[in-house]
Amino acid sequence: MQKINRNVVLALLSLTSLVFLLFQLCYYKFYLSQKNGAAFSKARGSQSGQDSTRWHVVRKFLGLISSHNIPVYLIDPLILGLVDKDIEQIRSSPDGPSPECKYFCAPRDFTTFALLDKTWKHDVGLFRTAEKMGFQWLKIVNKDPRLDGMDDLSGMEIPLHYIFKLASHAIHLVVFYERSGNFLWHGPLRLKQHMDRKFVPFRKLHFGRYPGAYEKPELLLVSIDDLKVQIPKNPSSFLEEMSHSRFLECRYREARAFFQLYPDDASLDAVEFRKKAKSLLHLAALTLNNLGVKFWLSSGTCLGWYRQCNVIPHSKDVDLGIFIRDYKADIIPAFQKAGLPLKHKFGKVEDSLELSFQGEDDVKLDIFFFYEEDDHIWNGGTQAKSGKKFKYLFPKFTLCWTEFVELKVHVPCETLQYVEANYGPEWKVPVKTWDWKSSPFNVQDNGVWPIDEWDNVIQIY
Amino acid sequence: MEEWKPNPPVKPHKKRSWYLAWKYKLMNQRALRKLCQTGAVLFLLVTVIVNIKLILDTRRAAYEEEEESAQDYDDEMLNVEVPRHPVNNKKVLDVEVYSSRSKVYVAVDGTTVLEDEAREQGRGIHVIVLNQATGHVMAKRVFDTYSPHEDEAMVLFLNMVARGRILIFTIKDEGSFHLKETAKNVLKSLGSQVAPFLSWRDMWTFVGKKGGEVYGEKHAKSPALSTWGDPVLLKTEVHLTSVEDAECHWPDTELNRRRKRFCSKVEGYGSVCSCKDPTPIEFSPDPLKDNKVFDVPVAVIAGNRPNYLYRMLRSLLSAQGVNPQMITVFIDGYYEEPMDVVELFGLSGIQHTPISIKNARVSQHYKASLTATFNLFPDAKFAVVLEEDLDISVDFFSFLSQSIHLLEEDESLYCISAWNDQGYEHTAEDPSLLYRVETMPGLGWVLRKSLYKDELEPKWPTPEKLWDWDMWMRMPEQRKGRECIIPDISRSYHFGIVGLNMNGYFHEAYFKKHKFNTVPNVQLKNVESLRKDNYETEIHRLLGEAEVLDHSKNPCEDSFVPDTEGRVYVMFIRMEQEADFTTWTQLAKCLHIWDLDVRGNHKGLWRLFRKKNHFLVVGVPSSPYSFKKPSSVTPIYMEPPAKEEGAVAVPAVAAAEQT
């Protein structure tokens, strides 16, 4: 009896062991397939050269969207890249059936679309229909940045991104908002704690790592791979825009803290100066944008944006930076045409160029040209009476968009380094007496202009 | 998975036969066998442990990887979302209710939901409505039944409360003086035994379910006229019902979900929460043809008067040409109930942390709301500004759509307002008529973005200045001689009785009899004549055709104006200089129109209607229209009555109203 029992026990144990072994193998298989799933399916896809899942998902999605009258447009950079190559053909035959699936069948995890917030009514029915069609969806909301700059307002959170997933393909829908300054803005994609991190491979998304700023696009209705879809009229310029669309929000919280320490100047003079500086900046931006010259807020204007999200009332001028490679000879006539006479011109295109235009009532527009070296960027200054040259050094920077006095403008992305280089670690403390030759933290003597060049490099009007 | 299927049946079989052979061979080697067996068991155990560990390991690895992959996209702040109300599965609520001369309080499960011990405030019957399933407070009201008519308001309120809700009553100070029979009967029907006999300065508490059981009642009689009853404290238990029983069974639509959310939270909104035949919360007014204000944002400025807001939004959403997407409600303070109302109608709402006090608080709220509106709608050139205590006329947007181009093109205009300060039942007649006035009426108006951004916003009164925003806007430094366009018959109606500068008496005297347009699709007459220069031509034409009234009669008397219809009459009053309004104020007083400050004038001319005749008043000699006065006519002069002490203060405060 005892023996049998023992045998039975042993047999049972062996069985359990086997079951476990099986389980272990299954688990491994499952785990591996999960991990490399994408790779596997990609391999399969490229063998056949087609992935009809994607096409079907996109078609279903477009059906869903059109049944709710929501105008979306395609902004998927990979597809737009392909489309751009054939753009002439696509434009000329908007309805022709396509012989092969060229665009929507390349196997990818996502297809990205854009939605203008104001063109739809936040209709909840959409999501219920989506669920009925088999989509799983995820909504990413966050604070409304258009209210962020305001003291003590708390609005409802706004949707920034939607992801609709069906089978192995996902649709990333980026919501664009209109902002002051006549541009479109999309938010960053940030997951809240309770959210499913594995819903889609978020890392591979093309939009959402940073917020972005775009011009309002002109759209074109085309038929590609037998799907009718809106695309930006000029895909290549959209892609170009996308590559440097990163947007920086002003640091409103810090600005509020700054005003707690140093209350804002609300005098009539300050109000008047701000008004003039704003209109001067608007005029300058219009002029330079028309010429296609890229510029950014520099010196005091940049400091004003970074420190207090406003024009510094005692700064008395507006400062812009332009890379010397973007210099155009038309700049001076264009400003003169816009009603801003040239006040002085220092330096030359090869060295230390600086332009100054006279705005309304003593408000001056200074344009500094920046020269790029291997490890730093600099701009120059010139003292008119002595011919002395100065040099202001900055660490290398790239440009980001921001919103400032109802304008979409560039600022250095690495703003803190830029401001610190210019104003030193004490940049947070307002300074009212400022000498451009000695006050800047990054000023260096740079010799003297040769006398025979003075007529050319020191021009005062 | 599949390739593993054939194996299991084979393996044990093999193993078994092998094992049997082995067993027979080593039958007698007990020790060895035992050892082998133990070894096998141990081995099996180890397998199991290794397996489990492996599972745990792979799981952790997978989790870590996914953590890493999404890291860039993690929210910076760890928003640990705490549910607002802990889930409460308790079936019984402990309720404590206290009533006394100077203090009342109500505690539910140890949480104080009402506490009022302020002096000279909160007199009367306090009523609290609890949800019978969750125990949440759905409404809190106080009815000062010491004063007349408040008992009627209480009856109205109690009738609106849904059956099954839990009602808590308690009296502070005095609550019986004007508690009439009808109200007592309603209380009796709720199950109160004491209510019919409540008398002067009695203390009373009562807890019961509407249309159901009574959970407790306590009463302390006042022993004498000069003293109050002893404080009473009622402690009782209330049994909660299931959530299903507490809700209505409306068809499951998006609208009804909103309705359900609303109705399970708040009470006192009547038929919107009726189970059988709920009143709609979506209105589909006819769209306007060629609507020029469809894309103009509408800012609704609100405080904590959710019932007003409810009424206001209903009328706004019923107006023809309304675009709900452009509406934003700005709530001054973190009040939940106004937000619930906003959500009920599917609109967007923004809460604003109050800054400063009194008038300055209102003024800061206005500034924040206007700035936010233009931020949210950067394309907008205008914004419509409304307040929570206004009814909106059915043709409000039609009126604006027909006139807004003037505001865009005519630099001499300050605003378009839906409100005519002098448009009372007896002084307004023509819904298609517009005026230009030098004052800024507010109460439903359109603001130009450039005016706000370039002029008003930068120098808006700071929080420490206790100014009324509207008074500030009317100051010459801001208005700079510009005028507003108003209709003869107002397109808004001010129904608010409770407010910062408002009370029942004041409302009755100055707002109740205001005329309000109810005719849809009014075609405005001769809108182009409202432009700066055209308007002068128009006035000259009017004065040319006007008949001069008999200046020997008393202008306050009805007989001053002949019993005709559709005629134009003119009278001349004395007005020594531009700011001399002595006679006008007296005339306004006796005509029972707005007399607290000067409103509705245009270059010393007022336009209104009397007995269905257009009635013009010209101030002589200050007004440029004085030349129309026949030399035989002496302008009427009316002397202000000798001022009584103390009477001065009332108009001073009252003039600040209109916010």
TrEMBL record, chain A:
Cellular location(s): Membrane
Any one biological process term the GO annotation gives: protein O-linked glycosylation via mannose
Pfam families: FKTN_N, LicD
Listed GO MF terms: phosphotransferase activity, for other substituted phosphate groups
All copies of domain LicD/FKTN/FKRP nucleotidyltransferase, residue ranges: 292-329
Keywords attached to this entry: Membrane, Transmembrane, Transmembrane helix
PANTHER family: FUKUTIN-RELATED (PTHR15407), RIBITOL-5-PHOSPHATE TRANSFERASE FKTN (PTHR15407:SF28)
Annotated protein name in UniProt: Ribitol-5-phosphate transferase
Species lineage: Eukaryota, Metazoa, Chordata, Craniata, Vertebrata
From TrEMBL, chain B:
Highest taxon above the source species: Eukaryota
SUPFAM superfamilies according to UniProt: Nucleotide-diphospho-sugar transferases
Primary localisation category: Golgi
Cofactor(s) needed by this chain: Mn(2+)
GO biological-process terms attached to the record: basement membrane organization; brain development; gene expression; localization of cell; myelination; protein O-linked glycosylation via mannose; protein O-linked glycosylation via N-acetyl-galactosamine; reactive gliosis
Signal peptide: none
InterPro entries to which the protein is assigned, alphabetical: Glyco_trans_13, ILEI/PANDER_dom, Nucleotide-diphossugar_trans, O-linked_mannose_GnT, POMGNT1_PANDER-like
Presence of keyword Mitochondrion: no
Reactions it catalyzes: 3-O-(alpha-D-mannosyl)-L-threonyl-[protein] + UDP-N-acetyl-alpha-D-glucosamine = 3-O-(N-acetyl-beta-D-glucosaminyl-(1->2)-alpha-D-mannosyl)-L-threonyl-[protein] + UDP + H(+)
Keyword Transferase: yes
Pathway(s): Protein modification; protein glycosylation
Cofactor binding: number and manner: The manganese ion interacts primarily with the substrate UDP-N-acetylglucosamine.
Subcellular location per the Swiss-Prot or TrEMBL entry: Golgi apparatus membrane
Assembly description: Interacts with DAG1 (via O-linked mannose moiety). Interacts (via transmembrane domain) with FKTN; the interaction is direct and is required for normal location in Golgi membranes.
Described function: Participates in O-mannosyl glycosylation by catalyzing the addition of N-acetylglucosamine to O-linked mannose on glycoproteins. Catalyzes the synthesis of the GlcNAc(beta1-2)Man(alpha1-)O-Ser/Thr moiety on alpha-dystroglycan and other O-mannosylated proteins, providing the necessary basis for the addition of further carbohydrate moieties. Is specific for alpha linked terminal mannose.
Domain-level remarks: The stem domain mediates specific interaction with beta-linked N-acetylglucosamine moieties of O-glycosylated proteins. It also interacts with its product, N-acetyl-beta-D-glucosaminyl-(1->2)-O-alpha-D-mannosylprotein.
Name the UniProt record assigns to this protein: Protein O-linked-mannose beta-1,2-N-acetylglucosaminyltransferase
Name of the gene encoding the protein in the UniProt record: POMGNT1
